[in-house]
Amino acid sequence: MHPNLAGRRRLAAATATALAVTAVSGLLAAPTAAASSARAVQAAPAAGAETGTDVPAQVPTGTIDLDTTTTVDFAFRPGPGEVGIRFTLRHARTGDSVTFVREYSLPDEPASGFPCRFTWDGTFSYPNPEGVVSTFAANSGTYAWTMTATPADGGPVLTSSGSFTATRTARPRDFDGDGVFDLLAIGDDARLHAEGSYRGGAGHSNVSSGQGWDAYDRLESTGDINGSPHPDAVTRDRNGVLWLYRGNGGSTPQSLDSRSRVGGGWQVYNHLAGGSDLAGDDRPDLVAADTSGALWLYTSTGNSTAPFAARQRVGGGWQIYNQITAVGNIAGGPAGDLVARDRDGVLWLYLGKGDGTFTTRERLGAGFQRYSELAGGGDWDGDGLNDLLAVEPATRTVHAFNGTGERHAPLDLTRKATPLFQGKAHPFYG
After folding, report:
1. Which regions in the chain score pLDDT beneath 50?
2. Among 382, 31, 26, which Cα is nearest to 197's?
3. Rounded to whole angstroms, how far apart are CA atoms 173 and 164?
4. Distance (Å, whole) CA 62 – CA 97
5. Coil, helix or strand for 120?
6. Exposed/middle/buried for 376, CB within 10 Å: 0-12, 13-18, 19+?
């Protein structure tokens, strides 16, 4: 059975006032229904509250859109006196969590309000092996919370609990439903790995699959080609068979479903590039350059059983390039674009016209021969513009060339080192 993309999340150390807790997970859930506004409700005291069952609370219920909500508030009224509060919020499937610990001294006659309050900003944090804490965006899915109030005088422990659902809009290259870019790689260990980014910093999608991915000699993140909201990936095995891995946004423990066979004969191509909408139909497509230099367009259909239409020849002379990358729309044209690197290390832009063809190429810059792999098709730094990533094997660093949105200078050629796969060397990136 071929491996699926499984997850492993690192230690989460999110701290509000006092404490951090662990988190272990994989790429995870994306919204399956339209988000509605979350609402705060007051929970009436349950019968026997004095003996430790429940406390009044104003907490979120229903659905919260984490793309638009910057703070999620929780408020409780545990009763008078000295009391210690422990509040934990946990993602139900992944285990990502944050815990707040606070001490309160409440008046004997507390006001009718809710004096114990906690605010979550929709992120988690974790320390890397060197102890540096990085922040990452929380995933969509179900969240459960618990509150425990322990009186200092030894009275009954009071508790309260609840849950809500969080959603995020599906985005290109977001495989785990946290709203940010993920870079895939097939490692020397024959596993599929992914690492994500958050606001241009370290992400949390440090995941790996079961073994067997060394059967492939090509990996491409294509965006959504099978009609779901979530990005997909294709791989080519060493016999020339192309396989589709449908993305599910992390709604199952695997963020990519089991592979399905697209077809054979793909060994005739030197280059594959997916992730740009070249046909102007709001679906990303795949291009392939054969050994004679002909460029072929495979428009996506939105049908997972037949994801591509019959190929169309859209150009010749592409044998001069040793790298072709789909970068999405980086230059403000009517459709997605391609960049190509020639054998001298010069990078060229092919602006998509929206009909599968391109304008005359434009020179972007030189010096790109140092990179083993170029990857595009997503917004790495979260500024709303598509970027280009470049893997430098000599330093084991993934660099970013940020998008500018400018027509004739669509990339900032001042490269920036990223934390993605820092210090790691993998044969294939996608």
Report:
1. 1-51
2. 382
3. 26
4. 19
5. strand
6. buried
Beta-bridge partners for 286: 274, 298
Q: Which pair of structure tokens corresponds to residue 133? A: 């804490």
In the numeric block, the tokens 């169309």 are attached to 312
Span 231-249, pLDDT tens digits: 999 999 999 999 999 998 8
Amino acid identity, residue 233?
Answer: A
pLDDT tens-digit map of 21-74: 222 222 222 222 222 333 333 333 333 333 455 788 999 999 999 999 989 999
**Which segments within 246-344 are labelled E, that is strand?**
254-256, 260-263, 269-276, 285-290, 295-298, 312-315, 321-328, 337-342
Buried b or exposed e, range 318-351, using 16+ CB within 10 angstroms: beebebbbbbbbbbebebbbbbbbbeeebbbbbb
Half-sphere exposure of 189 (CA within 13 A, CB side): 10
**Secondary structure, 3-state, 179-207:** CCCEEEEECCCCCEEEEEEECCEECCCCE
Q: Are 307 and 326 in contact (CB under 8 A)?
A: no
Token readout for 344 is: 């001298």
Q: Is 2 helix (H, G, I), strand (E, B) or coil?
A: coil
Residues 295, 301, 306, 309: what is their CA dihedral angle, to the nearest 10 degrees?
-40
| CA gap 25, 8 in Å, rounded | 5
> If you count them, how many residues does the chain have?
430
The span from the CA of 191 to the CA of 404, in Å, is 34
Can you say how many angstroms the Cα of residue 384 is from the centroid of all Cα atoms in its chain?
14
Pairing of β 72-76 and β 57-61: antiparallel
Q: How far apart are the first and last CA of the chain?
A: 22
Backbone angle region of 163, left / alpha / beta, with phi > 0 → left and psi within -120 to 50 → alpha: beta
